[in-house]
């Protein structure tokens, strides 16, 4: 029997995601990949993987997974999800080694929308177009291009215990989530009236229920175009905020189309995409305009933050107790995060 | 391809560099659907690809612009934009060579459910529509919307047809269609408000091939009408991995 992880309950919606595919954008293939790339990478670090290894991305509620291997080291990272192993509470942002037959369960999120379940060694699946990321509409990647279904088995690369210790991440190092969502204006901000831009930057927008891996539809004050709201199609970057004829913004995300014909008023900075990915329907967003230089600086800062995390993981048998970790994992208030309003 | 184009004036005098966040910059060469502009996009894409700039990850060519995706950890916008500017052609260039594909199409019936509608919309017979559609040469302006979905320019004027008021939620894979002034070849079932003229057995997208995508921006296309029996025969070959489309390299 091949070593595998059995999906006993996939929760509300779960897919396999890595950092996505970049070589086929010109052929109309979305890059896909984890919506919250920061959490995916931390989850992988905790189980000793390359940060870009594929993991399970779950949404709002995690479900239950059973180990069908000698043993398996696993970690859950992302929104604030309750985790248990064989019905005993277990800490997120911590790797745990589970024996054959053990079950890891992830409940409904207390805050945040997405979580990642990484396994040591990763999944033994064939990449599609260079990536294991699932794109459901295109039937690409993951397990047969589909969302995880009950009782499906995900083959594991490693059948037994990985060397090294279980690790945990000090909660103070987790990047914070507070503050406005920062954008670089454009590429088509000249298609909007001055008033429209003012509305966009000074209003609050609500994340609607029509929000998924392709994009988030927002609701709030209407954004006035300067004239025509159709453009000759051009490329759509991750985080593009397009405003179609109904004057309400849509932020285009991992599974977005590669090209499109609506003007894009602004683009969410890369360093804030993981924060946006965790926002729940009903939550309010405020956008703040920053320069390209600042956006690039913030991206570099986030990378350094992840490098720091990789070097700061501690074995769970060190001085800290399980109780402390359970508590501290809920105190998501990062020292990594520097408030853009202060800088 | 006429080397002396009349359409050059549709290119911007000075291309615009539009920042699309911190990891992409869109080079806009024009603002219209036009063969000259699209040709300039294809030339620029090739030049940028050959320049192999450290930190440039990918490009997305469209009708009239080229999006350059970069890694700000390896190159910053303020360094990238001057380097891209240097790659813009100093003079108007001759048309690039390229590839011309002959794509077999079975028109009408279940393969193209809107053939009769398009014919009656223009007071033409279905044979006229087939003759006009397969008589022109098309150009792949852009791949987008879905993997391998090819937007084509060059639809002869008599076939320009407004899109359906009521888009279909799914259309057959490998449909050859038209909408407004454009034509297209699809690869998989997709929603569409365009008119389905026919279907090709050619897999322009096949994951089992080493190079999964057959067509790219700048390729020329000619359609060749085939019978239903011929469709069945070619479809069986294509299913086994045969490319079946003829390709000619234009110098």
Task: Give an account of the 3D structure.
The complex is a heterodimer of chains A (343) and B (251). Chain A has 343 residues and is of the alpha+beta class. Chain A has 2 domains: 4-168, no CATH class; 170-343, Beta Barrel (Cyclophilin). Chain A contains 5 helices and 22 strands. In chain A, β17 and β18 form a beta hairpin. The longest helix of chain A has 21 residues, at 292-312. Chain A is elongated. Chain A starts with a strand and ends in a 15-residue tail after the last helix. The relative contact order of chain A is 0.17. Mean pLDDT of chain A is 91; it is low at 329-343. Chain B has 2 domains: 7-87, 2-Layer Sandwich (Gyrase A, domain 2); 98-250, Cyclophilin (Beta Barrel), CATH 2.40.100.10. Chain B is 23% helix and 29% strand. Chain B is globular. The interface between A and B is large, with 46 and 46 residues.
